[in-house]
Amino acid sequence: LNDTNPRSLIVRLCDVLSSLRIHGVVFEDDTRSEAVAHILDFLSAQTAVPIVGVNGGAAIVLTPKEKGSTFLQLGSSTEQQLQVIFEVLEEYDWTAFAVLTTLLPGHEDVVDYVEVLTDGSFIGWEHRGVLTLNLSDDDPDGSRLRRQLREISAQIRLLYCSREEAEAIFRAARDAGLTGPGYVWFLVGASFGGSDSLPE
């Protein structure tokens, strides 16, 4: 199923499910679109057919799932990623950090979960603030973005954004001198993975 636009994906899957005796579906795609996961979750809930998402948009972890869904995703949720990141920060005694997000859906949940992890901890976390970046077209040379990135003084930065946004942010961070030795960036979110690398 190479065509992952919602209509053709739903029609094709429904055709397969109605024409064959299927006990379950294993689904892999090359997209990083969360829409694929939502479609598969919906279809599982409506048809009672177990679906396993193993890669791409199908593996972007959704919480919560539709009632009655038997959609299993082999990936880590944003909350699980943040738990691991904070264990790494604790291990290396990197207690001062900042959170950077874009307006990507879920960014408020990320900020809230960071608060949960740090407020209830005995570690002396030094949260240096949250910066929400608005990557609009009215900054063609990236000067506003570079200025915003310099506003945060933390050398440890947790970044929640889409893959496309990350490319623009890292270009601006590199130009602002915020990617060299002494700076550690953690990318948070389901849209990162696979073998494609971000620009250096």
Automatic annotation (TrEMBL):
It is found in: Membrane. Residues 33-188 form the Receptor ligand binding region domain. It comes from the Eukaryota. GO terms for cellular component: membrane. InterPro entries: ANF_lig-bd_rcpt (IPR001828), Peripla_BP_I (IPR028082). Keywords: Membrane, Transmembrane, Transmembrane helix. This is NMDE4 protein. The lineage of its organism: Eukaryota, Metazoa, Chordata, Craniata, Vertebrata.
